[in-house]
Write a structure and sequence with these properties.
- With 200 residues, this protein is mainly β.
- It has an 8-stranded antiparallel β-barrel.
């Protein structure tokens, strides 16, 4: 019974913004992110968590940032921008550490790795040929990028009852390798509101 009581469940909803450049989110749209998770409390301060989250990654890329495959037509023309909207399944694995614990409030930080499953990728590619601008649309499915991003998290957790906690958690994702059809190195920042539930 004491081992089972160390497990907890998570549910969250938040806003996500993505970019091909670090902290350069000015012209990129915000999208939703939501999902569920499970955690295990190792000791008073340390926990390990994982989950399954879904959302959209919306961003703009240029010809240097989007890696076209060898022999692609787009390597022969001047691409001005790639407008991307990708539906993504995200599976993070992270370690959480309580920095400050009070009777009703915890402050914590976390670090982890996240894998992306690209459910659907939609791209509008704009390019210039013979001084005329064109755009073509493409979509792809099934690309995966295991342990592709580093997660850095800070958060606050307020106790509502002995079993229920309210969480507010901002975090950033730093790319370790490219994701999607164009192997784009994608930075993200998010703010999510969640519920932590201890079932036993």
């Amino acid at each position: 019974k004491s081992v089972v009581s160390k497990f907890y469940l998570l549910g969250s909803l938040g806003a996500d913004i993505s970019s091909t450049k670090l902290l350069a989110f000015k012209n990129n749209p915000v999208s939703s992110r939501y999902g569920i998770g499970i955690g295990y409390k190792i000791n008073k301060n340390l926990s390990v968590q994982t989950g399954f989250y879904t959302g959209k990654k919306k961003y703009l890329a240029n010809q240097r940032e989007y890696n076209f495959k060898t022999g692609s037509y787009y390597n022969l023309v001047r691409v001005t921008k790639i407008d991307a909207v990708c539906t993504v399944y995200e599976i993070p694995v992270s370690i959480r550490y309580n920095v400050l614990q009070k009777k009703l409030l915890n402050i914590y930080t976390g670090v982890g790795l996240s894998s992306y499953i690209m459910k659907k990728e939609d791209y509008d590619i704009y390019f210039i040929k013979n001084n005329t601008e064109y755009s073509w649309a493409y979509n792809y499915t099934g690309n995966q990028a295991l342990f592709s991003t580093l997660l850095l998290t800070v958060g606050a957790e307020k106790k509502l009852t002995d079993k229920i906690y309210l969480q507010l958690e901002p975090f950033v994702s730093i790319p370790l390798k490219g994701v999607g059809e164009g192997s784009v190195k994608l930075f993200s920042a998010a703010l999510q509101l969640g519920i932590k539930y201890i079932p036993f």
